Amino acid sequence: MKPALLFALTDKDGKYFYLDINKDVQADATPRYIEDPSTWDDEQIKWQRNANYLGVIRAQSELTHKFHLTGAEILRQLYAKYGIQAYCEMHVFKKNSTTQQYGLLYKGQLDFSLYKANQYFVTINLMEDALVGLVKAYEDTPYSIPIEFADSALVYMDGIKLNTAYKFFTLQHGPVTSPTAPISGTYYRIIPIAFFDQLGSFTTGRAADALSIYGTSNSDNVLFTANQDVECTLEIDINTFYSGHSGNSGPKALHMVLTIYLDESYTLFNNTILFVDPSPPSPGSGKNLNINLTHTFTMNQNHRMLLSVGMDPISPGTNQIDFTIEGNGKIALTTLARTATRTTRGYRPGQVLNKLTKALTEGKYLCQSSFLNDTARNPNTLWDTTPYNNIYTCADAIRKLDTEDTPAIMQVTLSDFKKDLSGKYQVGVGIENNKLVVEELLYFFDKNTTIIDLGDAIKDFEHYPYLELLGSQINIGYEKKELREVNAVDEFNVTSVFNTALTRKPGTLDFVSPYRHDMIGAEILYYNTANKKTVDSKSDNDIFVLAINSKATDTGTGAYLLDRRPVVNAGVTYPDTAYNVPFSPARNMRRKAGYIKSLLQATKTDQVARFISNNNDTTLVSTSSAGYVIAERNYIDYGSQFSNGARIFLPEIVQFTAVPPDNFVELMNNKPYGVIKAKYNDYVFSGFVWDVGMKSAVKNTFTFKLLLAPDTDVTRFIKV
């Protein structure tokens, strides 16, 4: 009589290990079998989900198996030759009771790091499926992904309008002897005041040079040069001390002068007297003086600006002046300019997944994602963007530090990549046919496909809420980055907080992406470090994501345009140039409507997510490309506003014991994402796999845990 199970040991190519006539290990394609491992009857094969990945992953119990005779000798020789790096798979074949033919029941790799041997037997553990083990072991390991010029997407970054703030270095100047030539024959330049910038749309002088007195020939050391036409506002509120000239015949008034030169040859364009002291001190005496004023003006491209203080002309000689600006004063220049145009390279998410999978598995396994690579989906169905139109890049690419020979490098982990995707979309991750699969949740929760119907042959039925999925607070959006500059208030892609009615389940549902989607941060990063190849940035390892309009390109470069189709109605100072609006947290809440509706089903009646706060006090209001007005601060009623949205599951578990059928492994391998049906209280219910399995060697009961399908009528579980 044929045995119920057959066992074989194979190499990574599926060739069968055997002992030749000399008792040496060989391998070929001819099926050969070993003695049954004595512990196999207790081995469990299971299929599980978790609240993080939500796809179905196969696992098995962590049992130590005992091999005798032929099997033990093969393992001893493999370990002696290769040590803990030895590779061996165990294949288990099960006889079909009807056809009497054998089919593959199980395949798993042996873990030689847990190898133990004596003269009678070898004990060793089975590893999880190789890809499952790799994912669990290395999901938090960062892998370097170069953004190659050959296969990356080129994005046309045409800038945004920003207010740019400049502040002066605190200057204290002692006696000035023999002042230089007068400005325009009217004023002596006593002290030029140097500024430093936060954005870089002007070139500025060096701090050390600002402590000296300059003539016209080298005044570019402390001049601003406008790289485009800009509107400027100058605010001055300083306390000063100055003395009258020694050797003068009379008092000389202090002046503050704004000088604009037409071009790089220092042709005078405008000379504006901002302030004149009406009552100067007597020669040799001093005076404390407050200067408080605001002045607006326009600079055209290539104009140069100099701010200085001076005195009325005097006769040449050894005349001196003392002038001091106290450190608690304010001299600030604010400009409105559009940040400069450039291009940036990056990858679509399907490319990132493919390259990450190859890196994580050393090229042994593939990935699959129809969702990430869908080029035909209308962005309106996903509130203004689809994954295919998301471009992943990094700080070095934003800074333009990459070249074709030295591309910018993204540091990517699987856990962060998945967290970013699930923060914006309804996606899950699973392992299917030795492929890493990233798809929409409806792919992993297929209520229309039945795995098996167990009928009423179930026992020990239990029904309870699945608390691991629930929380009273929803955090969604993006990790906050400190932007210490005047435009930071305009950044809307931050973390928003919503409350739900689940007061009995305190805790937080975290949908916050670890990747940066902030347009202000991307622009500031570029301009603070542009052309500074040796300057490190705190953002060097940050990953940025850009929303592109894949149907529109720049005619000059052929690069994709940023997606500015959503209309900004309020909350951004210069709405016409804003980008990455499709990633706003309120849109993420809408894209995840089915998932959040599933969780809120636990309240039964209250389907509202109420806005509480965001960490940048943003007030963005925008209109989607489909015409819907979206206010980031509004509450979201998933009951009425999304009445047509598909609820994916119920956040409730049914648990029972049942005997799996003989072909349960085959059924689960073929369609693990469907539902398992059973009957309780004369009601046929359906549930998705959460934790199911079977003893691989014997027909025995197993405890099934199912997440209820969305159309389940739980009132039918009540006995009347």
Structure description:
Helices cover 12% and strands 40% of the residues. The protein is mainly beta. Strands 4, 5, 33, 34, 45, 46, 47 and 48 form an eight-stranded mixed β-sheet that branches. Strands 12, 13, 17, 20, 23, 25 and 26 form a seven-stranded antiparallel β-sheet that branches. Strands 16, 18, 19, 21, 22 and 24 form a six-stranded antiparallel β-sheet that branches. It is elongated.
Q: Keywords for this structure?
A:
seven-stranded antiparallel beta sheet, 10 helices, mainly beta, single chain, eight-stranded mixed beta sheet, about 725 residues, 48 strands
In total, the number of strands is: 48
**What is the average per-residue confidence, as pLDDT, rounded to a whole number?**
84
Q: Could you give the distance between the termini?
A: 51 Å
Uncertain runs: 170-185, 196-221
Structural class: mainly beta
**Quick one: overall form?**
elongated
Chart the SSEs and their pairings.
Blueprint: E1 5-10, E2 16-19, E3 25-28, E4 44-48, E5 57-60, E6 64-68, H1 69-82, E7 89-95, E8 102-117, E9 121-126, H2 130-138, E10 143-146, E11 153-157, E12 161-168, E13 172-177, E14 182-183, E15 187-188, E16 191-192, E17 195-197, E18 202-203, E19 224-226, E20 230-243, E21 254-261, E22 268-276, E23 286-299, E24 304-311, E25 320-325, E26 330-338, E27 342-346, H3 349-361, E28 366-368, E29 390-394, H4 395-398, E30 409-412, H5 414-424, E31 427-432, E32 435-440, H6 441-444, E33 450-453, E34 459-465, E35 473-478, E36 495-499, E37 508-513, H7 519-529, E38 543-553, E39 560-562, E40 567-570, H8 585-591, H9 593-600, E41 608-614, E42 621-623, E43 629-631, E44 636-637, E45 652-658, H10 664-670, E46 675-680, E47 683-695, E48 702-708
